[in-house]
Amino acid sequence: MNFKGGYKALFIFSIVGYFIAFIIALIVGTTYIPPIEIIKTILGRYLNNIKDSSTNALIIFDIRLPRIFLASLVGAILAFVGSIYQSLFKNPMADPFILGTSSGAALGASIAIVIGINELIFGLSGVALFAFFGAILSTLIVYRIGSIGNKILNVNLLLTGVAVSFLLSSVISFIMFLNRNQVERIVFWTLGSVAAAKWEDVLFLTFILGIIFVIIFIRYKELNLISVGEDTAKSLGVDVQRVKKTMLILTSLLVACAVSVSGIIGFVGLVMPHIVRFFVGPDMKKCIPFNLIWGATFMVICDALARTILSPAEIPIGVITSLFGGPYFIHLLIKQKRKVLW
Amino acid sequence: MVRDTAINIKNLSFSFGKEIILDDIGLEIKKGYFYSIIGPNGSGKTTLIKHISRIIMPPADTIFVQEKDVTEYFQKDFAKKLSLVPQEIEGEHDFTAYEIVLMGRYCHLKMFEGETKKDKEIALWAMKVTNTLHIKDKPFKNLSGGEKQRVIISRALAQESDIVILDEPISHLDINYQIEVLDLLLKLKEELNITILCVLHDLNMAAQYSDYIIAMKNGKIIKIGNPKEVINKNLIKALFNLEVSVFTNPINNRPFIIPLSKFTQIG
């Protein structure tokens, strides 16, 4: 696939696509709100300063908007981090949770659910806070075991991630076994959801994604060189270990933040980077922006589906991402295979 | 004419577990000459090169590049002094040949700065020199072994370093490209005064092109000198346990060897 010189057009097109998805997601849901109503309510609040406390205003401002923003942010973060890990580790199977982040977060959340911490701490729910520290802790353990001295060894790191994930998952299973009445809550959390989105979460994630995106994006050249090979990057002048360390610390932090508010949403971070690479090529200067925008769009669409398909019931978003993203990805793989064969 | 030192190695040893790979290496590479390293498999040639190019960081006070301890260089500054064409070329990516060559310019870019017009011109020049301009927009992974090799040499040229180190640069190439690559290295030496250090398996090629040949065995340098001093019956026997006849190439008066088979004595 080639868009010679047309990347800018494709990017603008993608942004337009995102806004269309955004607006549709605002309209649909358990209650259908006509577009006219939405425009009136939003303009009313921001232009005319009307304190509108109708049901529609409540749904738009307190439920749907934060939810759509959160879905966008989580989707963008997962696709972004996935693309970084795939070039950093030169491994097409790498995803944002490969360093044990997800199982650590799930264990933290399970503990919080079981011991019943329900009050807010620093405006965060106990479950989110425990999930965050679980994620950070497991990532640190993996990082510590996976590196020798000052060197990060890819194979060691990835294998340690897998091992720690299995270990923590069995601890979670054990906790569920001992607390059968809480199983549903734990399982639901691990399947991921952006239903409980709050404006604080949105602001916090925007802030941290903004900072980390800038720090990483200005190093896209180093990422490109490392994706060719670590020894090559070294001989061309990249301080490989330092770049890797910086990237790993920042991305782990980002993923831990996302996971703590949304649960474990699989698939996006693994597959979106491949889809982006398929369309725009290997250059991270192009890949990173496209991952952000496509990850966000994909997640907004998935969330809209999650709350409309079986309305009023909600399907966990993690189920939707794989159910709808999977077949498309398989289609791309087959298409790519055909291109190689014929 | 006084030529200064490009690379100076003192007391360099390296072992892997109990196995000694490099045994007290001492070596001086003079600026602007063509050096080849010869020796049997496992003699430590590649390990030596990896140390010089900092792929394996040597201990302090063992290797000096242009009079400065290699452990004291910043990564980018080192890449401006010395470029490497490795033995194994990584091809598991989707970059085009031109993009790969342009990566050679990384060490000249300021932090967070993109490639300028000048960088692009240098990359194109480097591809022209190695005769790879016509494949510049092809994906690197679809190229043949020889094309890949020449693209990687272009990348090393794009680095514009004073020293180019190559690990078996001609082993994947057809004979015409072998000559082309070695001629190119000779040209770089003559016209740009670049120091060449090159691992070669083909002893005759080493003899025809080198100013100096370094013979290694069991992690030691057993002989260093001009081709006439190094390429002789006894040394080849000591290095490879192989009987050879040594002749003189009538075109350039350099030594030329013919290996003797143990089984068929023809004539």
Structural class of chain A: mainly alpha
* N-to-C span of chain B: 49 Å
Helix and strand pattern of chain A:
HHHHEEHEEHHHHHHHHH
Low-confidence stretches of chain A: none
The shape of chain A, in one word, is: globular
List keywords for this structure.
heterodimer; A: 342 residues; mainly alpha; ABC transporter involved in vitamin B12 uptake, BtuC; two-stranded antiparallel sheet; two-stranded antiparallel ribbon; 14 helices; B: 267 residues; alpha/beta; 6-stranded mixed sheet; 4-stranded antiparallel sheet; 9 helices; 32% helix; globular
Please describe what this structure looks like.
The complex is a heterodimer of chains A (342) and B (267). Chain A is mostly helical. Helices cover 75% and strands 2% of the residues of chain A. Chain A has a single domain (7-341), classed as ABC transporter involved in vitamin B12 uptake, BtuC. Chain A has helices spanning 7-27, 35-46, 55-88, 101-115, 126-146, 154-178, 183-191, 199-217, 220-228, 230-235, 240-262, 268-280, 284-308, 317-341; strands spanning 120-121, 124-125, 147-148, 151-152. Chain A has a two-stranded antiparallel ribbon with strand order 1-2. A two-stranded antiparallel sheet of chain A has the order 3-4. In chain A, helix 3 (55-88) runs parallel beside helix 8 (199-217). The two termini of chain A are 15 Å apart. By secondary structure, chain B is an alpha/beta fold. Helices cover 32% and strands 26% of the residues of chain B. Chain B has a six-stranded mixed beta sheet with strand order 6-7-8-3-9-10, with helices on both faces. A four-stranded antiparallel beta sheet of chain B has the order 2-1-4-5, with helices on one face. The interface between A and B is medium-sized, with 21 and 28 residues.
